[in-house]
Write a structure and sequence with these properties.
Number of domains: 1
Strand content: 15-25%
CATH superfamily: Thiamin diphosphate (ThDP)-binding fold, Pyr/PP domains
CATH topology: Rossmann fold
Radius of gyration: 18 Å
Shape: globular
Number of helices: 11
């Protein structure tokens, strides 16, 4: 197994306030602290309903605007165009959860990407609608137990696989798409710094572990996130100009998915057959990504 990437000190002013009302061990709080330290004070950020708005909005003292679930793409587009019209240069950031990105908000974000609006879109993916009770979303993994896909005699959790939003966004031929994880700050910082200097639509899909919804001790937030990456369930990669794909972190050997999933109570019901299915899917996907590494996407 390859060694963990060494922690890189994030230079720049600390933007996020010390206190916030997020749950203990919340991945969103870790992500926000890193992201806004990289982006700096010359930033307008937007949010839609979710954990980010409720728990973190008052802790990030920057220009902020919020809107309805389905309006995120329209809001960041309007702000970006307004700043351009007045000759002001600022980072315009959409900081949304998986519901406001992959489900309810996807149409407006797709339109913004198609227009190549000059914004940075960050999806903080905790894989369910955690702010309203942990309901399943399009980004919830298969077999995960949620409040709307409970495990019972007629249910084994969510029935369908997770939506591949990074590839959906890459299909818009935008300048930059990347995945990242709060457990790998070097990788996250580098991708934010690169996205910050580009003009056009930039999309970062960031793994943001949720102790409350996933079911693990809050002290294990980073360990659980790292295991998801090391098992191949959360690959770290980037796509430039719509079709140039590159893995940015390659474990020498993938850990078994069972090692990662058994840490989370949302998967405690899995039997060996279900573990085998997930393992097979991960291996197949990892082989596909490895073949594409350094090559153009077949899209």
């Amino acid at each position: 197994m390859s060694k963990p990437m060494p922690f890189q000190r994030v230079e720049g002013e600390e933007i996020m306030a010390l206190g916030n009302s997020s749950c203990q061990g919340c991945g969103h709080a870790i992500l926000a602290r890193i992201a806004f330290k990289v982006l700096g004070k010359n930033t307008v950020y937007t949010s839609v309903p979710g954990c980010i708005w409720i728990a973190l909005q008052s802790s990030i003292p920057l220009y902020w605007r919020g809107t309805v679930f389905e309006g995120g793409g329209a809001l960041i587009s309007g702000i970006s165009n307004g700043l351009e019209a007045t000759g002001k240069e600022m980072n315009v950031v959409g900081f949304y959860g998986d519901g406001g990105t992959a489900d309810i908000g996807l149409q407006a974000l797709s339109a913004a990407a198609e227009r190549n609006e000059n914004v940075i879109m960050i999806c903080a993916d905790n894989e369910a609608y955690m702010n309203t009770g942990g309901q399943r979303s399009g980004l919830t993994p298969i077999y995960a137990s949620t409040t709307t896909t409970p495990v019972a005699s007629e249910s084994r959790g969510k029935k369908s696989n997770k939506k591949n939003v990074p590839f959906i966004m890459a299909a818009h031929n935008i300048p930059y798409v990347a995945t990242a994880s709060i457990a790998y700050p070097n990788d996250l910082v580098g991708k934010l710094q690169y996205a910050k200097q580009l003009k056009g639509f930039k999309y970062l899909h960031v793994q943001s572990t949720c102790p409350t919804g996933w079911g693990f001790d809050s002290a294990r937030t980073i360990k659980v996130a790292r295991l998801m990456v090391e098992s191949g369930m959360w690959p770290l990669y980037e796509v430039t100009e719509g079709n140039n794909f590159k893995l940015t972190y390659k474990p020498r050997e993938l850990k078994p998915v069972k090692e990662a999933l058994s840490q989370q109570s949302r998967f405690r019901h899995l039997d060996e057959k279900e573990y085998e299915y997930i393992q097979e899917q991960v291996i197949m996907k990892w082989k596909q990504l490895s073949e594409m590494d350094g090559k153009k996407l077949p899209i």
